């Protein structure tokens, strides 16, 4: 911009281009430049209409929007006015052609059979318009890119290669009538599926709809043929049209009787109103029966496959149950055991069988973790140990859990065995059984048990028996140690809680004292966790204590040897043991205190104040 009184040219912000150079003066606006601008705008809009859009079909072919953008650039760089098969124009054009094709498949047989000598102006106009559009469709096909079968991502955009492709199909085609019929059917089916891809409809339901439409269309053609042949013969006296006196009837009545006769033949339910009286009528009847039986067989086969594919997991479950029944018969298992096995499968799989390990193994690590976290959401919500823990720790634990189902009466943990697992109860009730066979207490949803044995490498001193059907998640000792090695504070917290339990039963509880000098500031956090655990236990187990009192009336003295108080109290600092083996040599796992109640209940979880 040149200011008066100055010998210099100054450029403002609006005078600079995106590249930092002065903008060129566009010059005066003329009518020619306006027309050129309009033509350029229309050209760009038309090219954009012919380019691929981010629809479902295009994303399936190219995989990403970046690859789709490269395809647009490639099409624009080709310099040819070629319609991309994934463009919006091609979609709407195919949709219009599909509607016009269906209209011709329905209207043409009716017009030929019932309106041969009475062609109105509207019919002639429709016929001419449809023929013109079909001719235009040929031109559009010659200007539409072709997706290669061996390389679907590479679309042919060269007009010469496109024309050579279509001409080669015409030259090496089979007889015209067969190809025409196959072309109609193929276009009708592919049009439906192509539309379904864009509209994001389920392909299964589209296949069922396609089969129904094909049966109705063949029935429509057969009905028109049933009337066309007698009409070409001049309606002889023994034809079904003359017998029913339909020569001068309205075309809709004629079509209705013809369709009824054809559908009766195709469905093999009769001959219509009258059986065939002439040789021609008999041959038409047999043709309808053959076509109907063929369509019925195809429809039945496709419908059966579709139904099986809709519920493949239930079908696999039935096959698995059949294999199990054959195995039980081969091994001659007793009736009671067979009943238990059958009930286990019914409860475990709920009528649907699938290999969850294979399914999860084929997912990405992040997606697999999300699925497992979602499947274990009820467990995480019901177990305070998980609900109050760090989210990363919870994710590492739940991804290593194994789902297990136990029937009523199953021994989950057996006394005297070496502990290799700890369990979380998702649903169900288990009983803590003492050595004398008495039930010390029961655990339900959200409880966990067996962790002390993993911390101490000790043997089980009590058994755990399922009272009802139990859905549990188990954590093996290897996974248990692998997770706690990554979260040492969580290990020390669990050891502190375990030591608190041992302190209640008079065992050597010095589990953490030998690490006191390593804890530093974390010891305060662990003590806070233990205090929170005690407060939570007092609140959550009052109702369970009242129930336990009702059961032990009259027999509390005999049971008190195996019970202890549920609510742990804040413990003092424990003395350092002379040797860690003093504790590890104790046979403890499912710890029972001297005054009666088990340590394994819903309140025996960890750290509300960790976060």
Note down, in words, how this protein is organized.
The structure is a single chain. The protein has 611 residues and is of the alpha+beta class. It folds into 4 domains: 125 residues; 105 residues, Helix Hairpins; 41 residues, no CATH class; 198 residues, Jelly Rolls, CATH 2.60.120.10. Helix content is 58%, strand content 7%. It has 26 helices and 10 strands. The chain has a 4-stranded antiparallel beta sheet with strand order 3-10-5-8. A 4-stranded antiparallel beta sheet has the order 4-9-6-7, with no helix packed on it. Helix 4 crosses helix 7, helix 4 runs parallel beside helix 8 and helix 10 packs across helix 11. The chain is elongated. This is Cyclic nucleotide-binding domain-containing protein. One of its GO terms (molecular function) is voltage-gated potassium channel activity. Keywords: Cell membrane, Membrane, Transmembrane, Transmembrane helix.
